[in-house]
Amino acid sequence: MKISIIGTGYVGLSTGVGLAKRGNRVICFDIARDVVEKINRKEPIFYEPLISEMLTDVVSKGLLKATMDLDFAVINSDVSFLSVPTPSKIDGSIDTSYIRGASVSLGKALKKKGYHVVVVKSTVLPETTENIVLPALEKFSGKKCGKDFGLCVNPEFLREGSALSDFLKPDRIIIGEFDKKSGDVLESLYKGFNCPIIRTSIKTAEMIKYASNAFLATKISFSNEMGNLCKRMGIDAYEVMRGVGLDKRISPHFLNAGIGFGGSCFPKDLNAIISKARNLGETPIIIESVMKTNYNQPLRIIELLKSKMDLKGKKISVLGLAFKADTDDIREAPSIKIIGKLIEEGAIVSAYDPKAIKRFREKYPQINYTKNPRECLKDSDACLILTDWEEFKNLNERDFNTMRNRIIIEGRKVLNPKNVSKFEGVCW
Ligand code: NAD
Fold first, then answer.
1. Model confidence over 288-334: pLDDT tens digits?
2. Is 48:327 a contact under the CB 8 Å cutoff?
3. CA 334 / ligand 1 centre spacing (Å)
4. Cβ atoms of residues 343 and 366 within 8 Å
């Protein structure tokens, strides 16, 4: 099938590369020139396992190209995926300006086109597609949804750090359809994916995404609350959650206690659904508590550190800046809050991350960045480990011996007790 992708960031590019890998012809459209140029040069715009090899492969085979010409992308495709950002406004509600703007542009491009299916892949609150996307498409194309073009919502569940394998091997595919014809076209694109395909109304599909993210975030905040209790009682939260997670009704995933969740999705999506609930006159007690627990969780590591030393003038080495391993994404990363607090307390921060330094430096140019963990640890008074990078799992006694003072606190369970002695975790 011929596909166009509108907005080729983490989700758009992973979708485009994944679909091209399955033999579809993909045109990526983006308003950012550097994004388009990089894709055509086979250079990924972010770090993600497999992206570099797969992008090179599909661009070299002529299956994927990028353009700044939306008409070209639409005219040469049968289905367009909208994967533009849906960030939070200052009050936490969803900012729909990108999705609205992209729908207007897409509507104009649809004028010159026969039947075409538009698929909303961005995470949008229930009613957004019907109240914002659909009217913009109809108004600016002068066409009728259902008759002249199709419309679906197809939420994305990929995780950064395993985006391509998640896209290619999803647990399920959700198709929210305006009408049967639109849903049939999208389902045919996913033919051969080995997972259940659930077809629903547009609003239901939009809600499935929010309910999924809210539930996963709830598991994390719940684990953190249990973890905080465990720490007080000298219990290892990981051993507890291993025992808990083997219950089939619970599952072992997303039970890792630590410094809280970050990333571009959970915080903004939970804030958006909270704001929507309040507008409807509901009080979303559970989701609000999830956010409250998560707000305080990163600072637990600072409290623990402060219980051991005064931070003023101390050199603190921070290992890990990305919000999770295998990505360079730092959006809402706990490291931002933790390093901010260290600076506020007068500490001298030295940081290392295998992939995220470039992005982090834009936020905190004033701290010292090192080329490897060893350099970061040298002469430090304490070390905080904030991301579970594989590289940190191999750190050993020799790496930490160069510290001036031996205080090591993990915010994510990373270190191997067989290789390193004398360290503790924020919840273990
Ligand atoms: P991103 O910021 O990485 O990328 C968005 C891209 O859209 C950028 O390249 C930007 O230049 C481009 N863009 C903005 N306005 C545009 C327009 N009018 N026309 C064309 N391009 C435009 O965003 P992302 O992380 O890929 O997220 C996109 C959507 O997917 C969001 O709704 C997000 O909630 C959702 N989502 C993200 C993830 C994730 O892990 N990142 C997972 C599931 C769902």
1. 999 999 999 999 999 999 999 999 999 999 999 999 999 999 999 99
2. yes
3. 21
4. yes
Q: 232-428 — its CATH code?
A: 3.40.50.720
Q: Report the separation in Å between the CA atom of 98 and the middle of ligand 1, taken as the mean of its atom positions.
A: 9
The pLDDT of residue 112 is above 90: no
Name the token pair of 68. 């700044």
Could you read off the pLDDT of 237-250 as tens digits, one per residue? Answer: 999 999 999 999 99
Q: Which atom of ligand 1 is nearest to the CA of 268?
A: 34
Q: What is the pLDDT of residues 330-360, one digit of tens each?
A: 999 999 999 999 999 999 999 999 999 999 9
* CATH class of this structure's domain 2-200: alpha beta
Query: Do the domains 2-200 and 232-428 sit in the same CATH topology, yes or no?
Result: yes
Pocket test for ligand 1, best of 265, 266, 271, 332 (most atoms within 8 A of CB): 265
Q: What pLDDT is recorded for position 389?
A: 98
Q: What's the length of the chain?
A: 428
Q: Could you list the active site residues?
A: 265
Quick one: which of 350, 273, 269, 362 has its CA closest to 317?
A: 350
| Domain-wise residue ranges, the chain | 2-200, 232-428
| CA 6–ligand 1 middle distance (angstroms) | 9
